[in-house]
Amino acid sequence: MRRCYFDHNATTPVHPDVLEAYVPALADVYGNASSIHHFGQMARQRLEMARRRMAGSLGCEANEIVFTSGGTEADNLAIFGVLRARRGPAHVITTAIEHPAVLAACRRLESDGVEVTYIAPSPRGVVDPDDVRRALRPHTALISVMHVNNETGAIQPIAEIGAIAREAAVPFHVDGVQAAGRIPVRLDDLPVDLYSLSAHKVYAPKGVGALFVRSSVSLSPVMFGGRHERERRAGTENVAGAFAMSHALEIALADLEDESERLSELRNLLEQGITERVPQATVNAAGAPRAPNTTNILFEGIEGEAVVISLDLKGFAVSSGSACSSGAVEPSHVLLAMGLPRDAARSSVRFSLGRENTLEQVDALIEAVAVSAEQLRRLSPACTARA
């Protein structure tokens, strides 16, 4: 059976050119970047090269890049790091549709006595900047809003929210894990103070990420044990991973416009084909500005997990929500926050496309979805009851 991968928001395969650069760095540059001997200095040079390349791709200074173990650590470092650097009462503004890495960190802050406001999105899945403005308090210490939602692909109004944060002199953190390499991101143009990234979302290996920290931001470390990363993140750096990530980001940006257009066309064809072939199938967040590769479709009366399993048996990998929430009994918190009923949220499936997907694969997926939906509706108690 030929298998097709439509779950790129969960993770991406390593790009062949990235792998070609990664393996020699892993094999030959094995010194500790903190060591002063030849091997250590080779590692340091490669690490700083990766930092400069990342900065060039993102439009920031090299010393504003902190390498981490991934997007989750970058989110945690931003949130806890800013709060630990502040004294006195604190209030955080975030949204109800954030990734679990942000929401879980905010819940931990609440248990420590920090006030947190969770902004609800519109039914399209987009946060209103005015709601952020209204949530501001004299002791607001941080605003954290994702750039692209991992489940619906909805793009949040980061520039507008950033302008509000600047006006209020409040640090602004953006989880950009699903944005970088998929939509234009230039930190010299965006009014953001901290920006999280993850390598394995841009066709690089897992286990490495980065946090942009604007030089004006006070940030306390949340890990201890060394003076790495200019004392912002302790631990021996993943030199090969950082180098691979910087290379992957350059590749993604080199053909960003053309690839975004291609993926958008495939995504639109997928949505059109499914909604035409499958009764009671609708696109969640259809009216919102979205990343070009992502669609979230509601199959009324069918369990989303059943669709995922049925498609997997037919050779197609898709998802019913965030990969970091897999195994959860509860329906998607993102879709619930958008106002979908619980049964509708449970009946939704995410399709996220990537570089290796083709029109032929999309056509095959549409056919597989149509067949699966028909089979599952015959088995659905809800549909049987209506009949």
Helix-strand blueprint:
Layout: E1 4-5, H1 16-28, H2 38-58, E2 65-68, H3 71-84, E3 91-95, H4 100-111, E4 115-119, H5 129-135, E5 140-144, H6 158-168, E6 172-175, E7 194-198, E8 209-213, H7 228-231, H8 239-254, H9 256-277, E9 281-284, E10 294-299, H10 304-313, E11 316-317, H11 333-337, H12 342-346, E12 348-352, H13 359-379, H14 381-386
Parallel strand pairs: 1-11, 3-4, 3-5, 5-6, 6-7
Antiparallel strand pairs: 2-8, 7-8, 9-10, 10-12
Helix pairs in contact: 1-8, 2-8, 3-4, 5-6, 9-13, 10-13
What CATH calls the topology of the largest domain is: Aspartate Aminotransferase, domain 2
Radius of gyration: 21 Å
Within the largest sheet, what's the order of strands? 2-8-7-6-5-3-4
Please bin the fraction of helical residues: 40-55%
CATH architecture of the largest domain, please? Answer: 3-Layer(aba) Sandwich
Uncertain runs: 383-387
Beta fraction: 5-15%
Mean pLDDT score, rounded?
A: 95
Instruction: Say what oligomer this is.
Output: single chain
Give the termini distance in whole angstroms.
35 Å
Order of helices and strands: EHHEHEHEHEHEEEHHHEEHEHHEHH
Shape: globular
